[in-house]
Amino acid sequence: MSVHHCGDFKQTYADDMKVMQTRFIQVCIGLFVILLYVFPYLGSNYHVSVMNKIGIAVIGAVGINIVTGFTGQISLGQGAFLGVGAFACSYFMREWNIPFWFAMPMAGLTTAAIGMVFGSPSLRLKGLYLAIATLAAQFILEYLFLHVDKVTGGSNGVMFPSPEIGSFAFDDDRSMYYLILTVAIIGVLFAVNLFRSKDGRAFVAVRDHYLSAEIMGIHLFRYRLLSFAISSFYVGVAGSLWGAYTQYITPEHFTIHESIHYLAMIIIGGLGSVLGAIFGAIFMTLLPFVLTGVTANLADYFPQAGYFIQSLREGIFGLIVILFLIFEPDGIAHRWRLIKAYWKLYPFSY
Amino acid sequence: MKHIRTLLGLVAAVALAGTSFAQEIVIGNLADITGGTGSVGKPYADGIRAYTDYINAQGGINGKQIKLLQIDYAYKIPEALNAYKKFKDSDKAVAIQGWGTGDTEALVAQVNRDEMPYYSASYSAHLTDPSKSKYNFFIAADYSTQARAGLTYLKNNWKESRKPKLALVYPDHPYGKAPIPAIKKFAEEIGFELVGEENVALNAIEATTQMLNLKKNEPDFAWLGGTTPSCAVAIKDARKLGLKTVFLVNIWGNDEDLPRLAGGAEEGTFGLQGAVTYGADVPGMKPILEVTKNQPQMTHFIRGWTSMLVMCEALKRADAAGKLNGRGIKEASETLRDFDTGGLTAPITFTPEDHRPTMSAVIVKYVGGKPVTQETVVLERKAEWLGL
């Protein structure tokens, strides 16, 4: 029972490919998952609601990390893709009476299709140019959200029916928690394994050096589109869960702010790392809660300066993000790796 | 061991700090101070805070102090949902003073389920139908009723034989769109001719394109929805382009700031109001003058104050009935019949079947840089208008 082997004793490829290398790690992760599942019995309703937001953010951030972190395609349209997922899922449930369990993957596929359409400029565009093309996607979709009333309810938005199993409705924080957690775990597992597969490695090759990748026989356009599709599928599922969670969606939920928020998550967490996306999602979701809590309490104690303190919140948020980027440019995941390496080598420095 | 003791001490201190005392009533307030509607949101939130301090100084609700928790959600719906969860679960609030249309509507299903009385500053008509939104209340006539009152006034004062031409200008936004179907239907019923529809965003800094489009049809009147800054932009650009159209501005789009922002272009513009202006000669103004030390406040402040005043009346009645909880406060609110707010607003009535607080709206006209009250239009409480 050890954290790490103190050498390389693997004798088969299967051993070498294991996600969880030692029994100790398997036990730890098993316990952590069990802890997650019993969390609603330990935390208050409010804590559970915070966890729900983190869960949805994790799914979305892992999705965006696939296209931006792993494939190197900057995408600024993720906020709108969340909306596509949410509105599509709601539409399938309301108009076609499809249960949530089918509507959610269908909404994911719808978002994947839209993602591929807007990802197609990636054949010819890279970097900043692609970023602007996907930014256009954000604005085009926002316009459609406002004006395709039949699907989105226009600026008034639409109700989102609660997922149901028989007569049991997932309409409160605790029941939604289990749904979101389960989907998040499946999503994370899929992403981890994706990058152990041929397609995942092709994404990384496209990111690291697209010319070399092409010479190796990797079809650039195909893999870029595939990356957009998988990423958008994740985001569409996250959007569906967000809708199911809030039970009411309006175009106001899915603005450019949301796109930037998700981009910030993966930059702070660590580009090109599933764990980084998780860390980033936790950090960026918790930060506003913490700041709101602190500023609201401070405002109670200093009623005269209440508004001033509350207005500071946005500024502090920005400042923390900037400081993070200065002092931890490779993201939280990198720091995590350093901490692990430190303990592995302790008491030696290397 | 010492560290553990210190840690335990800290934990205990935090836990104690988090618990509210038994003699406290916790009210959550979702305010927009820094967001898209902050210009009118801040005075409204100030009014809520001021009345809370005032009632606490008077001994509170039957001896219980109110603890008001204000959160600036910057007019972002997800933030509003977070704040609401915090109020409900962590702070154990018994009622909420809310703000905008989008967030209030996004929370309708939840406040129904949580039995959480919700006094909003969104006056959307469909919040007045208890069959759909049992726990939503507000203290001014709903947007649709106000608009009908405004159109009635314009029509009654129309002297020409032809039909007056009406255009609609509003932000493409839940708040902006809320009364539009009602306006269209009612305007046609009473003999207006609809001649155009334009969108001016809440954060607009110019509206020339929209006003040029309006100019083609030369409307006699235009309904103008928005907040004061966006309405001032529309009015200024209309005058710049030589439009003769007379604007009828909704409740959040005209106030004491309008002349300052429109720079005189607002002369002759009509505005809808739901409360008196600062310094009006009504009994309810006396405590406001005291609390604000005669520093003039905007009409939004007075509506915030009144919203809290009416909620506190419901709290008193619920407490007296020994039911100081969500359902008790809702039921107590529904016992209000022509409740006098000291003349600050029209008398307030809520019944279990009808949450329209009043059917009257005040029409003001901007003359010489000041809003001058023209008339209070009182409409019939028609059942078919409920929720529309």
Describe the overall structure.
The complex is a heterodimer of chains A (350) and B (388). Chain A is mainly α and 350 residues long. In chain A, 74% of the residues lie in helices and 2% in strands. A two-stranded antiparallel ribbon of chain A has the order 1-4. Chain A has a two-stranded antiparallel sheet with strand order 2-3. Chain B is of the alpha/beta class. Helix content of chain B is 41%, strand content 17%. Chain B is built from 13 helices and twelve strands. Chain B has helices spanning 2-18, 38-57, 77-90, 101-114, 143-156, 174-177, 180-189, 208-217, 228-240, 258-262, 285-291, 299-320, 326-333, and strands at residues 24-31, 65-72, 95-97, 118-119, 136-137, 165-170, 193-199, 221-224, 246-249, 270-273, 360-367, 370-378. Chain B has a seven-stranded mixed beta sheet with strand order 7-6-8-9-10-11-12, sandwiched between helices. In chain B, strand 11 (360-367) and strand 12 form a beta hairpin. In chain B, helix 2 crosses helix 12, helix 5 packs parallel to helix 7 and helix 12 crosses helix 13 (326-333). The longest helix of chain B is centred in the last third of the chain and has 22 residues, at 299-320. Chain B is globular, with a radius of gyration of 22 Å. Mean pLDDT of chain B is 89; it is low at 6-22. Chains A and B meet through helix 3, helix 13 and helix 14 of A and helix 2, strand 2, helix 3, helix 4 and helix 6 of B.
